[in-house]
Automatic annotation (TrEMBL):
Origin: domain of life: Bacteria
The family this protein is said to belong to: Belongs to the UPF0178 family.
PANTHER family, per the entry: UPF0178 PROTEIN YAII (PTHR35146:SF1)
Taxonomic lineage from the root: Bacteria, Pseudomonadati, Pseudomonadota, Alphaproteobacteria, Rhodospirillales
Segments forming a coiled coil: none
The protein, known as: UPF0178 protein EDD55_11025
Species per Swiss-Prot/TrEMBL record: Varunaivibrio sulfuroxidans
CDD domains with a match to the protein in the record: PIN_YqxD-like
NCBIfam families to which the protein is assigned, alphabetical: PRK00124.1
Length: 149
């Protein structure tokens, strides 16, 4: 049975994930190192991990299975999920793929180096309504694909 794992600390689409999960009767694991509010939905399993740089990522990577879905912006976590045969999607609706994850990891390393040297400042563009809509559309497609596995 497909389950959804959410890297929940900074996820802007938690409510959207819950709506889709309830429609498909899927369990959602909201994984956080604290500071997340409980959800009244019976679909939501709140997982509080110990404080630490990658504690939530480690928990997700250890528990996710082949027919599951991870919601994250974290490229290394997405790579770990793909290695386990799971699907991974960003909150803006972009999917992580086996073909593209190597380039995404390399680009992440390059951008980190450029930020550390001061060559690049600033962060990603603000999350928009269009991103939220694209996420909802893509999550529906990904859920259906995962359930066919």
């Amino acid at each position: 049975m497909t389950e959804i794992y959410v890297d929940a600390d900074a996820c802007p689409v938690k409510d959207e994930v819950i709506r889709v999960a309830e429609r498909h009767r899927l369990d959602v694991h909201m994984v956080s190192d604290g500071g997340i509010r409980p959800y009244p939905s019976p679909a939501v399993k709140l997982v509080i991990v110990t404080q630490g740089a990658d504690a939530a990522d480690d928990w997700i990577a250890e528990h996710i299975q082949g027919a599951d879905i991870c919601i994250t912006n974290d490229i290394p976590l997405a790579a770990r999920c793909l290695e386990r045969g799971a699907l991974a999607i960003k909150p803006n609706g972009e999917t992580f793929t086996e073909d593209g994850i190597g380039m995404a990891l390399a680009n992440r390393a390059l951008m980190q180096t450029l930020r550390e040297t001061g060559a690049v400042t600033g962060g990603p563009r603000p999350f928009s309504k269009a991103d939220r809509s694209a996420f909802l559309n893509r999550l529906e497609v990904v859920v259906q694909a995962a359930m066919r596995r």
